[in-house]
Amino acid sequence: MGRSSRSMNKQTIIDVVTKLESPSMADIICKETKLDWESSSGFRVWNETGDEFLDLTAGSGVHNVGHNHPEVLTAIIQQLQSISHTGWQFPTRSRANLLEKLSNLVPFEQPQFLFTVTGSEAVEGALKVARMAKRRPAILSFQGGFHGKTGGSLTVTANPKLRAGVSSHAADTIRLPFPDDDALRVHGFKVPSVEEYLEWIKRFIIHPDFPIDQVAGIIVEPVQGSSGMTAAPPNFLKALRQLTDENDMLLILDEIYTGMGRTGRLFGFQHDNITPDIIIMGKALGGGLPISLVAAPSSIMQQVPAYKQTSTFSAHPVACAAGVKVLEILIQENLPQNALERGEQFRSRLEALNGEFLENSGVRLVVTGRGLMLGVRIEANTPANSERLARQLNENLKEQYVICLLGGTFNNVIKITPPLTLTSSDVDMICNRFALAIGKMITQESTLNY
Ligand SMILES: Cc1ncc(COP(=O)(O)O)c(C=O)c1O
């Protein structure tokens, strides 16, 4: 149906969703994003009425190769034409192709993979793998960490609000503080050495009351998306590697968000030159289709008995076909390197807006994150004011047809996770629109002088 022939009294998409969906998702849609998406290409999306927006969310960090990449589309259509769904018990050529491709990309000599569908399910799978491999029940995770909202993944997700009323704090998950690369940089602190980080972490866990011999592994994100794109500083992952080696624990890297080139390397842990024991992937792997997995050396994976983690749509043939193409495109188009360069361009342009607009205002923008997993954190005199200004700025960006999501521990971070295909002039165009949005925020906030 053409856009113009839409019946006058037909309810809008947002109205239908608001009326018929649980507030769990509908609340954010009707109060915050207030936007439907009907078509897309590259980093542009269009709503039902045909307005064009620049998408800096990549659909929750999924469209790393851009929306509707023609080669991904072709792979999907070809797979659909032969067989769409088999059930995990019957493997397809697309699944074998993806396994072979991934085997050459993960840093394990004899890798093996466990297919799942969503990120949360992959996290649960990884926790099962770690617990089975080590025959220990406990997992260490980090404050600010996010690993999903299903029952098992919630146990390692830090935010207690997400557990409130639906799940209790699992006795065998312990959370440690997470250091913040940007805080070190902004305050001009020296980056601690591996030894200093080790010393710091050991203060928390080398205590007679701490059941260190019960811990199967540590789960960590190289950049925490949920806490506002908080990157682990250099040396931190190395310290965790050493700690896990010394205590016979596994190092589990949740690369669901950071993987597939987003931070400027294929995997986020590659910035730190470490080899983890378990890698979790999801989001961008399927080029827009749901697929996730756990990767580990066969010595670890072999400890998981038959039937321990399966689900109807695991290793979906169409998602596998898309995944093969996504990996090829990421490498052929050198997208991780582009993410690194465009990320630096964003950082310097956005940080310069402080001098242009916010001198002596009592408010500043701190650009957090790595590669094209960035956050613009608004820092005002109180968390409430920071959140209010971030909301205002996000509304202004939307008026400039730029779509971002809000997040961060205090909901004061504008998240920038666009497709990795952006060009230098795309970034300039987006930053010009940020400047307009901040300029408007200044005029709206006559009391900016906190
Ligand atoms: C690091 C990380 N782990 C796990 C998840 C959960 O993935 P999903 O929403 O696909 O279940 C997410 C989702 O944003 C994530 O960012």
Automatic annotation (TrEMBL):
Pfam families: Aminotran_3 (PF00202). It comes from the Bacteria. One of its GO terms (molecular function) is identical protein binding. Its cofactor is pyridoxal 5'-phosphate. Gene3D superfamilies: Aspartate Aminotransferase, domain 1 (3.90.1150.10), Type I PLP-dependent aspartate aminotransferase-like (Major domain) (3.40.640.10). Keywords: Aminotransferase, Pyridoxal phosphate, Transferase. Belongs to the class-III pyridoxal-phosphate-dependent aminotransferase family. PANTHER family: ACETYLORNITHINE AMINOTRANSFERASE, MITOCHONDRIAL, AMINOTRANSFERASE CLASS III. This is Aspartate aminotransferase family protein.
